[in-house]
Design a protein that fits this description.
Layout (H helix, E strand, L loop, with lengths): L4 H17 L2 H6 L8 H7 L3 E9 L5 E11 L2 E6 L4 H8 L2 E9 L2 E12 L7 H15 L2 H8 L2 E14 L3
Antiparallel strand pairs: 1-2, 1-4, 2-3, 3-6, 4-5, 5-6
């Protein structure tokens, strides 16, 4: 968990605001007892969390695909190739939706704007270290060289976020 108390407060406010604005159908499914608090959410979203990320084509068609998601400082982050269709879409139309759905018992959905990150900037040192902590352990020390020469990352600045939790 990388969130500060202030970030947890902001995340809780986002979750509450999103729920208050949700439609009747969604609120019938995500009842108050099936929601996660910001603290509960951040304790579950550690390491790499697979996301299905949707971007939008020039003619308004959604395109969805899997990405590695990292929940860091209260926001989902994801990476891809700088030449990917995904990042070409984001450069023109930054609105995205993403869902983490590891099974029937948990779902986290976010809608917002993808903001590209410069991993070489001092402001991103913590996120860069989080990536190294996850992927060097998984793929070995050469992953840092891969990070330095290849993928680009973005943060989803959420406008809405919904959680669903129902233990099996």
């Amino acid at each position: 968990m990388h969130e500060t108390p202030a970030e947890l407060e902001q995340l809780q406010a986002l979750l509450d605001r999103s729920y208050e604005r949700a439609g009747v159908h969604l609120r019938e499914i995500i009842t108050p007892d099936r929601r996660l608090s910001a603290d509960e959410l951040t304790s579950r979203l550690t390491g790499m969390c697979l996301l299905v990320l949707a971007t939008v084509t020039g003619d308004g068609r959604p395109i969805a695909g899997p990405v590695d998601g990292i929940f860091f400082r209260g926001s989902f982050h994801f990476g891809s190739s700088p030449e990917s269709v995904r990042f070409r879409h984001i450069a023109r139309r930054p609105w995205v939706s993403a869902t983490h759905l590891p099974g029937e018992e948990l779902a986290v959905t976010v809608h917002g704007r993808a903001v590209p990150l410069d991993l070489a900037s001092p402001e991103q040192a913590g996120f860069r270290q989080a990536l190294l902590d996850i992927y060097v352990l998984r793929y070995g020390p050469s992953w840092e060289a891969f990070l330095d020469r290849g993928p680009v990352y973005a943060r989803i600045d959420a406008e809405r976020m919904f959680t669903f939790h129902m233990p099996a």
